[in-house]
Automatic annotation (TrEMBL):
One of its GO terms (cellular component) is plasma membrane. It is found in: Cell membrane. The keyword Transmembrane applies. Keywords: Cell membrane, Glycoprotein, Membrane, Transmembrane, Transmembrane helix. InterPro entries: Acrflvin-R, HMGCR/SNAP/NPC1-like_SSD, Patched_domain-protein, SSD. The chain crosses the membrane at residues 26-51, 299-319, 325-343, 350-370, 376-394, 415-437, 443-467. This is SSD domain-containing protein. Signal peptide: none annotated. Belongs to the patched family.
Amino acid sequence: MLITALTDALSFGVGAITTIPAVQIFCIYTCAAITITFVYQMTFFAALLALAIKWEANGLHCVLIRETVPEEQADECSLFTRLFMLGSRAHPDPKMLEANLRGRAGGPILSELVRAHPHAAVGARVGLALLREGLEPVNLLVKDSYAIPHYRALENYFWHYGATVQIVVNNPPNLGDPDERQKIRSMVHAFANTRHTIGDESVQFWMDEMEHYYMDHRMGIGIPVHNVTSAKHFYGLTQHFLSARRNDFWPEDVKWEWQPDKGFSRIKAFRFLVGLRDISTSVQQQEATQILRDVSTRFLRYNVTTFMPLWLFTDQYAIVVPNTVQNIVIAMVVMIVIALLLIPQPMCALWVALAIASIDMGVIGFMTLWDVNLDAISMITIIMSIGFSVDYSAHITYGYVCSTRTDPSEKICEALGALGWPLCQGAISTVLAVVVLADVPAYMIVTFFKTVFLAITLGLLHGLVFLPVTLALCVRGVFSTTAGAGGGGGAPSPAAAIRFDVSNAAPTAMPRRRSDSSGGAISNK
């Protein structure tokens, strides 16, 4: 229980260092819940369990605390009594599961599962190669939402050609200077001519419209604004242009600031719009965001900001992969430290770490093949998969290391016989708890179910099949055989004592011994 609570709590604690607020909140609350649950189980629940065992030993009902009917008298009782008031009985053969594992799991079933591992690894690598990033806006809606056709139309038409990005100049220069105005136009040209912008013809800029307005001979004005050199004159022309009824589209693009020392207002900030193209996928949206931000860094003196509603999602896309890698690496390091502290075999701790990496690769790879993107939701369950994978792997590894058997196959059977069924019960109960989410018509909830199901399934397979076989093949030096007394001088005596290797810093475990009927050799029991 300590291994389970510690690994789960720390895996979510590592997830809390991510920069995505939703993931932080989920991980913090889950870590707190796991901690409180562990304290509750070790105190209140353990006390109730002790009382229940005492009542059972005294033949009392676990709820009504009344005397139950012995099994020998069951045939004489009513159906109600047999169902609700019958006493408990001991398991007929506590070694049955271990014997079953020795007879079957060590045979064709285990062999077929082990042979399937390379194929599963190839499938996971294919999924990793096809990994898709980002939480698409349409996936935030339920499947029957009326807004889905709207988003599909955006993806199919407007995001291919015609969407606009707003570019804000927060620190404009003195626009009364023609040279400064020319530099601004060069900046606008740079934004308009990138891989994901349409070109100069897509620019919506109030300064261009103002020049056209004053050069329109139908208005009888004919003022060449591009030749104006006075700041007061230029800003006055701009105010007049923006106040005209036909130009009511542009005032929102300019912010004014009064200058008491000069006696007129200046432009404090302004914006212009540029048309976008080819941003229908999350990868293209990330690329467009990065390109436009790179252009803005070339004009730092103007403090340029780019904005589009999609940027709210592309910012999340950009940090999901780095945060996921960061969390996996840190969590694996933490889990290795825990394994080294709790498992008395350093080499076994290494294999636990490799099992964690294999499970995480499998979860990420197969979730892609199962039509799940790498986003904030799947990132949470990847963090969960680290804790789940350590649970199964660490328990089986600890059972393998602490086994008193000498043969690796016997050690596997003993570990699985003691821990296999409880681990299966934990996995089945977790899957049953989330399987009700599989039919909910919402991408986020179904994604949670899929990734949790993958984490539990792959973690259980590694803990019960792949890791035990690996330990049996690669970790054979856990025990050593030492000759007993009375050996003479030839071969080691059959009185060999099986103990933990001192070099692995594990506690000594001496089995009981008895003399055979001849009074000579001593055999292990």
